[in-house]
Specification:
heterotrimer, A alpha/beta, B mainly alpha, C mainly alpha, A: alpha/beta, Rossmann fold, 3 domains, six-stranded mixed beta sheet, 17 helices, about 35% helix, globular, C: mainly alpha, ABC transporter involved in vitamin B12 uptake, BtuC, 14 helices, about 70% helix
Chain lengths: ~525, ~290, ~350
């Protein structure tokens, strides 16, 4: 461990007047940021506020157009993350940069290996990992394959990587996005102990609760500018939220409940890779939300329901028709639509035009007759949907890749809603979408429900689930462990269930005939 | 006795070019570069070896020149797929076609013949213990590759680059450098393979003399899961099949059956290994855009 | 309209073709030949009155094989077994032609259909390897090709060999069992069949629901799968059609002069690989495939003419072809600066 120099200045990292422009937007506008040594400093803001850009400038991944970066009081000009690491910085990215097929020790030491005659000194690497783990409370098995580790441990490996290189300032980008509340607490304990040792932590996040509980000071960005510099102990959730969005925000807007009718989807005992004995029902006119930390079987369950994943047991009926073994096509024909979580890799074909993307699923029903697909019909259909869902596209012929994230998501959701089918499966509907589009998408989903359809919603954003769902189910380790009505589903109860602490009593499920 | 030492020697002779090329393919695979241009690189090696040996009188210079020429040729793949992010499959196929055309063209312009250049005074490689020196080189290469990949610092970084180039980049390991290195190494190895084909077993150059061996090497990489030892076993399987085929020919089976035998055997081996292992499918898309 | 022309000019295809032509010129200069004269020889030799017949005949096979490869390529599938499927189609057509009891015109039809069926079945085999055994199509189709060629070779040299001849060929087909030719030229109705196939491909691709599914699969296979497009069924169907087309080319070859199956004659001109490069150059688009096939047929026939008049080896056109594809694969294009007169998204 490299303790900070005794004569090091009080300020660990300072960014002065950082400006960065991209075509059409200013990501950072004369941003000043001062982070003191030994503190946990939160950098907050919504998607697109400029936090990631700022940190990538600090970490040498991009160059600023103007401004300067000072580390330990000295001006720094990083051309690559390697330079930043050499200066004592270390970053844990939002999506981990790990080598799944290699061991923990190999991941930690790669590019800074202990050597013997040019070969990697494996014993020394293992020893090093054990030492660091013990010293900082980050226990993990050096020989375990990283690909087999749960998310919480993978994050530990990321932190160990930085500590192995003697990082004095750690930058963590949305570290708790994939952690349960309990794991997040454990992380913060580690961070606090690192800070107590004189290391500095910069936390890039939009999660209010953790910032309030774990940080010392907060800097808020909005639209590329610093709009607030706060001391955590002296501020409040409302003040921070208002600074992030620029208006008095109705935090956690809760929509009015629906009026449930007949059962549309009935699942009993569904078992597949990652899901055991899942049972649930969704009625017409209701939204059922599945909460749970990502990786507890939600994606697998939805994929199985959509017909994209084989099941080993269980029964699924849609409008009383058995679709347990139906193909994806058949399920769609029987009245299922599906918004997948990955809009780029699964939900659309970015290289195809907007019109072609909007045609998918309709190309064998409303748009075609006897196998023929007239292009004029495809275009008209596209124009209709573009107008109805407010998709901002110059023409229907531009490739879908030209659309912004929010518009692409509107395209995807609009296309699936346009099927007007009894059951809609939707995953992470507003991930990576700016706040204006989020409201719009939520309104669309509520309207779909109120038109008498059934919606099964999976989201990692608790506020989204709580705002939209009439009933909330919690998944933990492949099982549905809890079911709550709208009024029972407060954050604390849900958080507890998500972490595995749901009550042992059986979850009452409607009998499926 | 069908399986005797003669068969083994025959198999080992057939093994060398495939092993060298497959080793190169495996190293590229570990670095995350899908190299199906092995056939073309080998063929360039064949021609360069023969031409150099003819003009200098030394087969060893021929070997050296073959390695260098194939390495230079491999830069097409390196630049095309690493720097310019082109499609590796299309590039590989194109490189194979180019090599055939180029070597045939050069055969006519440099040697003035069509089809085969076969001069008795063309110096070939001497035999040591019944085998070409490059055979021993190939076995040593397997050992070196195995050691480097699993234990050496460069090997660890190469594997990291192949598995997750972004992750490697954030650690300061340049994926570009390692991928280029892997492709160049495969070029050198394919050059040696070509030299072995043209100056080892026989001493001549025929149009398209690699005759699909580069493709077999690609399959050997798949069978051997890009591990040096696995690739050795896979290449040995092919070598045995080919040798057995010649033996069967001697026993009266038509030549066409023995020609086909190695491919059938390789295909069968692929069935057995992939059926057990399920998902090892390479992305087959070439981005056929409208 | 202006934008589309600019767009076409800026496309990687234009750049690659230009690059190929330039580098070809360099080679020519390097061997002491005159590039202009050589290229002129290529064009007059292939498009002139004497050569156009050859070009169209060659073009029949090139376009046929290009279609055979383009059809699955449109969905991102690579069929490298064209040689095997074509040869099986040829030998099957030969057998049908030799032993069919039907009158000649019906035999011709039967032989074409039999050839197509043989090619389709063999290509379907490769598809099954991928669907049920997980062997990548790229590999299975290629590996299956060699035994098929060997089988046909064996049949032509032994059981079906023409008695009394030392050549590796079958007996000549009975009188009348042949594709009618146009006038005195070597161009047969095979050309018409292949052009019809191209038209069918265009129509399916642009105007049908399944063509849409194929294109979407090629652009993002996960997207198509999520939306319910069955990849396995599609693979099998596309490979069957692909094999059928290759088999058709083989059958056409046998039903044209010299009206027999000759071992090696179908594969020697390298139509499969030329067809592949045409399909790649056109990124499997229907109209583009036709244009590219014609372009490469011109090169191939023109190359021979060039060799006759300038003594430049005909292999140069092969080199040129490959260079075009290399540049295309590397996705090089003219920098947008060169074309930017107005700030518009092209």
């Amino acid at each position: 461990m490299t303790p900070p120099r005794a004569d090091a200045p009080d300020v660990a990292v300072e960014l002065r007047g950082i400006t960065k422009r991209f075509p059409g937007t200013v990501a950072n506008d004369a941003v000043d940021l001062t982070v003191r040594r030994g503190e946990i400093h939160a950098l907050m803001g919504e998607n697109g506020a400029g936090k990631s850009t700022l940190m990538s400038i600090l970490y040498g991944m991009t160059r600023a157009d103007a401004g300067s970066v000072l580390v330990d009081g000295r001006e720094a000009d990083f051309a690559s993350p390697g330079d930043a690491m050499a200066a004592g910085l270390g970053m844990v990215h939002q999506s981990f940069k790990l080598f799944d097929s290699l061991s923990v020790a190999e991941n930690v030491v790669l590019a800074a290996e202990p050597r013997r005659f040019g070969l990697v000194d494996r014993a020394a690497a293992r020893r090093r990992v054990r030492e660091l783990a013990e010293e900082h409370g980050l226990a993990v098995d050096p020989d375990a394959r990283v690909g087999e580790l749960p998310v919480g441990l993978r994050q530990r490996v990321e932190i160990l990587k930085l500590l192995h290189r003697g990082a004095r300032t750690l930058i963590l980008d949305e570290p708790t996005a994939v952690l349960t509340p309990a794991e997040a607490d454990a992380l913060f304990a580690v961070l606090k102990s690192l800070a107590a040792q004189g290391r500095t932590v910069i936390l890039v996040t939009h999660k209010l609760r953790e910032v309030l509980e774990g940080s010392d000071r907060v800097t808020v960005l909005r639209d590329g500018r610093v709009v607030a510099r706060l001391v955590t102990a002296e501020t409040s959730a409302d003040e921070i939220a208002a600074a992030m969005t620029g208006r008095a925000v109705e935090l956690d807007r809760i929509h009015a409940p629906g009026t449930p009718g007949d059962v549309v989807l009935a699942v009993s005992g569904l078992t597949t890779d990652g899901v055991s004995e899942a049972s649930l029902t969704v009625r017409a006119g209701e939204i059922v939300g599945i909460a749970g930390v990502a990786g507890n079987g939600q994606s697998e369950l939805i994929e199985a329901l959509a017909g994209l994943r084989p099941t080993t047991a269980g029964r699924v009926t849609l409008l009383q028709q058995d679709i347990s073994h139906a193909s994806a096509t058949e399920r769609r024909l029987k009245g299922l639509a599906y918004v997948p979580e990955d809009r780029h890799a699964v939900g659309t074909a970015p290289a195809a035009s907007v019109a072609e993307n909007l045609a998918m699923g309709h190309h064998r029903t409303t748009l075609s007759s006897r196998g023929l697909l007239p292009p004029a019909g495809v275009r008209a259909h596209a124009r209709q949907l573009i107008e109805r869902f407010g998709i901002k596209a110059p023409t229907p012929e531009v490739p879908a890749s030209a659309l912004s994230g929010g518009n692409l998501q509107k395209l995807l959701i609009g296309r699936e809603l346009a099927h007007e089918v009894p059951l809609l499966l939707v995953e992470q509907p507003t991930r990576g979408v700016d706040i204006g589009a989020i409201q719009n998408i939520h309104d669309q989903l509520i309207a779909y429900r109120d038109a008498g359809h059934a919606v099964l919603l999976v989201s990692a954003e608790l506020s989204e689930i709580r705002g939209l769902a009439d009933r909330v189910l919690v998944m933990y380790e492949g099982r549905i462990t809890a079911s709550y009505d709208k009024n029972q589903a407060d954050e604390r109860t849900l958080g507890l269930a998500m972490a595995g602490g749901a009550s042992r009593e059986a979850v009452t499920v409607e009998a499926v005939d | 006795m069908f399986f005797d030492s003669d068969l083994l020697m025959s198999a080992l002779r057939a093994l060398t070019p495939i092993l060298l090329a497959a080793l190169g393919g495996a190293i590229c695979e570990r670095a995350g570069v899908f190299n199906i241009g092995l056939e073309g690189m080998m063929l360039m090696g064949c021609f360069t070896a023969v031409a150099t040996s003819w003009f200098t009188g030394s087969p060893w210079l021929g070997v050296l020149a073959a390695a260098l020429a194939a390495a230079a040729y491999s830069l097409i793949l390196a630049v095309g797929t690493v720097t310019l992010r082109g499609d590796a499959v299309v590039l590989g196929v194109a490189m194979n076609l180019l090599a055939v055309g180029l070597t045939s063209f050069l055969l006519r312009t440099v040697f003035g013949v069509q089809g085969t250049f076969d001069d008795p005074s063309l110096a070939g490689l001497p035999l040591i213990g019944g085998l070409s020196p490059l055979a021993y080189v190939s076995w040593a290469a397997v050992a070196v590759a195995a050691l480097m990949l699993s234990r050496h610092v460069w090997g660890l970084r190469l594997r990291g680059v192949g598995e997750a180039p972004d992750a490697a980049a954030t650690l300061g390991v340049s994926p570009t450098k390692y991928k280029y290195a892997a492709v160049l190494v495969s070029g050198v190895l394919c050059g040696l393979a070509g030299a072995q084909l043209a100056l080892g077993n026989v001493t001549l150059f025929t149009e398209n003399m690699t005759a699909g061996r580069g493709w077999i090497a690609v399959v050997a990489v798949m069978l051997g899961r890009a591990l040096p030892l696995g690739v050795l076993l896979a290449a040995l399987l092919f070598g045995l099949a080919e040798a057995a085929g010649f033996r069967l020919q001697g026993l009266g089976l038509p030549q066409q059956a023995t020609d086909a035998a190695p491919y059938v055997v390789t295909l069968g081996a692929l069935f057995l290994t992939t059926a057990r292992r399920r998902r090892r499918v390479r992305p087959s898309s070439t981005g056929a855009a409208s | 309209m202006n934008n589309r022309i600019l767009g076409a000019l800026r496309s990687p295809i234009t750049f690659s073709v230009l690059a190929g032509v330039l580098i070809g010129a360099l080679f020519l200069v390097g061997t002491g030949a005159d590039p202009i004269a050589s290229y002129e020889a290529v064009l007059t030799g292939s498009l002139g009155a004497d050569g156009i017949g050859s070009t169209l005949t060659t073009g029949t096979s090139v376009l046929g094989m290009a279609l055979a490869l383009a059809i699955p390529l449109r969905a991102g599938l690579i069929n490298l077994g064209g040689d095997g499927q074509m040869v099986l189609g040829g030998i099957t057509a030969a057998v049908t032609g030799l032993y069919s009891p039907l009158p000649a015109p019906l035999t011709v039809v039967l032989a074409l259909l039999a050839g197509m069926a043989a090619g389709a079945a063999y290509a379907a085999l490769a598809a099954l390897c991928e669907n049920h055994f997980g062997v990548p199509l790229l590999v299975s189709s290629l590996l299956l090709s060699y035994p098929a060629v060997s089988l046909a070779s064996y049949l032509a040299r032994y059981p079906l060999k023409e008695p009394g001849s030392s050549l590796p060929q079958t007996r000549s087909l009975p009188d009348g069992v042949a594709l009618p030719a146009f006038g005195d030229s070597t161009v047969t109705w095979g050309l018409v069949l292949v052009v019809l196939a191209a038209a069918a491909y265009w129509f399916t691709d642009q105007r049908t629901a399944i063509g849409y599914e194929i294109r979407m699969t090629g652009l993002n296979s996960r997207f198509a799968a999520y939306a319910g497009v069955e990849r396995r069924g599609l693979t099998l169907k596309l490979m069957s059609v692909s094999g059928a087309t290759a088999g058709l080319v083989g059958a056409i070859g046998v039903l044209s002069f010299p009206y027999r199956f000759v071992d090696g004659s179908l594969t020697a001109p390298g139509y499969t690989w030329t067809g592949l490069t045409a399909a790649l150059l056109a990124t499997a688009a229907p109209l583009g495939t036709v244009v590219a096939s014609f372009f490469f047929a011109v090169l191939q026939v023109g190359g021979l003419a060039m060799e006759r008049t300038t003594e430049v080896p005909r292999e140069l056109t092969q080199v040129l072809q490959a260079i075009v594809i290399v540049f295309l694969a590397a996705r090089l294009r003219f920098p947008s600066r060169w074309f930017n007169r107005r700030k518009e998204a092209v």
